[in-house]
Amino acid sequence: MTIRFVTSNEGKVEEAREYLTEPVEQVDYDYTEIQSDDLAEIAVAGAKEAYEETGGDDPVVVDDSGLFVESLGGFPGPDSAYVEHTVGVERVWKLAKQEENRRAKFRGVIAYYDGERAETFAGAVPGRIVAPRGEGGFGYDPIFEHEGETLAEMSTERKNAISHRGRALAKFADWLAENE
């Protein structure tokens, strides 16, 4: 069995290959992202659409994730990519720096769909919002600090070892080993 990871991000595929023993194939398909506050609901809808539209017999996996800032009511949450591209990471920092509580979490959900069943696996990494620093990573990595280091300051290996996606992938790998 091959797992088809629906993403345009090769880095996500490489991260999945680190956790899964099954072959992982990248599928670059732009599924419709439904509007919801629930990452699992968004990921499952995307996985079902991608499975149907790409016509494969192998299961698909879709990842949905977001940055959730406590003092901003969970903003930007499921809309993190949209906010990053329209408002920008610097403006999210400017909003958060006005708050005493800058605690935040990166949350992610891996949705698996095989044409009959949908399963979800969640992961989260706690941290706090800080002034931008670091040269690596992408997106919100420069403003998200975990254990004294922003994700942009971490090596790819360290970031993947503590990432929300990695935590969800580890749960998914355990489930696959028991169910396939």
Distance between the termini: 9 Å
Mean pLDDT: 94
Task: Count the domains.
Answer: 1
Number of helices: 6
The CATH topology label is Maf protein
Tell how many strands the DSSP assignment holds.
8
Write down the overall geometry: globular
State the CATH class.
Alpha Beta
Question: Architecture in CATH?
Answer: Alpha-Beta Complex
Taking the sheet with the most strands, its summary is: 8 strands, mixed
Radius of gyration: 16 Å
What string gives the helices and strands in order?
Answer: EHEHEEHHEEEEHH
* Poorly predicted runs: none
Please report which band the strand proportion falls in: under 5%, 5-15%, 15-25%, 25-35%, 35-45% or over 45%.
25-35%
User: Class by helix and strand content?
Assistant: alpha+beta
List keywords for this structure.
single chain; 180 residues; Maf protein; 8-stranded mixed sheet
